[in-house]
């Protein structure tokens, strides 16, 4: 693959995912093809969340005084909040923030909603745009100033244990979601200095892009009682006493789409899994001098049959060379191509060509079994793409035992490094600076007798580090 | 019905549609029940639009200079645009508007997208939040400062005729949509002084709320070449010459949900059509001392069966009086209640009670025909609600022939008045002032010999007027 960043920008344009020419830096236009990928991806997530969350929608604007209430939280965001100061030609009495995230929009309302222990747990989510005045270099879908697809869940619980359980449940939700998408990840507990502003602790999902840098694709925060105390979210417990609630929140963004594109793509362009592809199949007629009408007619019926079964299918009947069609649909990542020529019809066959591995097969066109065969092929593609992505991901996680090795590995290979760590903030920050990496977080406890790779003190944790986006 | 405004506010709260306590005037929270009604409503619209429009998503923020490019347009909006002036602690070089509508966000991009006549027509839509710094009294879903459900379509065409045709097509789209929802409307051509800023002409849909005032629920604008010239949207025609494109745009907002609630509701609360109801049916077990388990078991199976058929159904097995359940679900507008008691099971019957007209029936519980019977009952409810709404709407349209009659009718009855009009702006504005109404617009040509109701000159148009929201 050519340089990833260039490839990524090109494919966004060529496959008509995003138009980056909008006249504000870091804010982009979702084009029809991109919008469809986004929609199918969101539908998968919503189906999972809808099982036990309620979808809601809060206002975009947050009054200055609400945003400022939680001191640690506002400190984490104040340098990157956009401010609305005027309505028409009038200066507003109180300025409004464009939400950078919605804790301070939601929690004043939660304070009104939560009354009794019987109201709990409460679990909500919303899909919204959020804004960050990023000073770092922006990149479409990866680091933007308008995050268009922020999917944030917020839960309220009666006890610390229930909040801890919800963190585990949220992790399962995202595992299921990324499994459907075939996106591999590590899960780690972010170091103290990198947790969500206001959280007790943050669990994070990171994946790896082809340039060897990790991308944070989801986070789950246990908020403890911090916000409940700030926003006075209390409930009446069994014995009538008022207790502060416990909260969690978790979310993900447009970066999920960046991962789908970056991880599965190749030199030929996009490679989409049937789960999110705008078209899951394209039918290409192979027409010779004779029998053209018969082929077109067969293809039309095939399209109709597949559509009737709920597949997203396109019949490409343009009068251009088949090769040009192959090229285009491969670039756009359509998971399966069905080719039909006169000989195939005579032999009662359809040629299937997989986008993910190029495999070409002759599938029996038996009305009894065809839909079943196509369905299993689709499932197989999903599974294979998942496996392939996990395989290369795992190959890029390396255990390293000295700081020299870290530098060498990072320079030559990139990827994720697993190491033993004392857990001290000063040591971690020193390591980040020396090796030019970020500590992603803690995965597990160190084995007895292990020492910290950086400082030599007894190790507490097995941790991960990487160059990050 | 009690005073409409009070009823409306109460039902938004009681049925958990919207929470109006958010700490910014005119900006509200969609609660889970409201969000579901909104979602089902949007899905109906999207299904219609998706037939020949592509869904896209443009940024919220519009640079000041783009917004200012179209002089008439910006004049129409400048007094009510929210401005972002700061990013973090830094003042921005160029301020950004929160979109009041998206012409000036989209059309600079259209200028890049439209190249040749073969690119046309282009038809896009998006569902977004838009902002208006309203100085008038705000009302939830009716006049708000954050419109959360702005569904705007924008099309580009090669000729004036095609743009005119698209206006007709857009009107058909909205007719289909409102038909599905059972919302009655008039369609009229807005007077010159009330058209969309920048449009050649505006066609508008108005419905009527129970307080006798009309509510604009959708508009369709023929933009001619005004924006194409401002934003340089040109295409290469057949002979290679560059021509300015023709454009239309059309949209609707949260007001559709206000109409659903206001038009079908009654003293008992919400009354939802099966098309948009969060729950289309609620199953209430009628339990006596004996046979309780059998009833619960039957209800559970019934719920499962109906869910399996794709119905949105809820089994209310709470241990409270059936009467309390009736009251609650009626207030929330569930279209159909299924009651099941031991005697019904013995008789192989289910009791159905319609929300819209209170009709109670014993439906045979025959596994062969039950789903079909329920499906037709659902359809019948939809049709009957539509008919009923249209009937009362048409009763409120009155033809009036003198200005005294206008005042009397408006004071005593409200509603919509049809009248003959000369069509002159000065006469129209005089009429608006004298009678305290708004001219909605023109419906058709006057018959020969008719005179203007206001000024006595020969009449040109049959027009509509009303007190409006």
Automatic annotation (TrEMBL), chains A, B:
EC top class named in words: ligase
Domain notes: Consists of three domains: the N-terminal catalytic domain, the anticodon-binding domain and the C-terminal extension.
One GO MF term: ATP binding
UniProt superkingdom: Archaea
Reactions catalysed, as given in the entry: tRNA(Pro) + L-proline + ATP = L-prolyl-tRNA(Pro) + AMP + diphosphate
Record's protein name: Proline--tRNA ligase
CDD domains: ProRS_anticodon_zinc, ProRS_core_arch_euk
Task of the protein: Catalyzes the attachment of proline to tRNA(Pro) in a two-step reaction: proline is first activated by ATP to form Pro-AMP and then transferred to the acceptor end of tRNA(Pro).
Organismal lineage: Archaea, Methanobacteriati, Methanobacteriota, Methanomada group, Methanobacteria
Coiled-coil zones: none
Cellular component terms (Gene Ontology): aminoacyl-tRNA synthetase multienzyme complex; cytoplasm
Transmembrane annotation, as ranges: none
Chief location bin: cytoplasm
Alphabetically ordered keywords of this record: Aminoacyl-tRNA synthetase, ATP-binding, Cytoplasm, Ligase, Nucleotide-binding, Protein biosynthesis
EC number assigned by the record: 6.1.1.15
Organism: Methanobacterium congolense
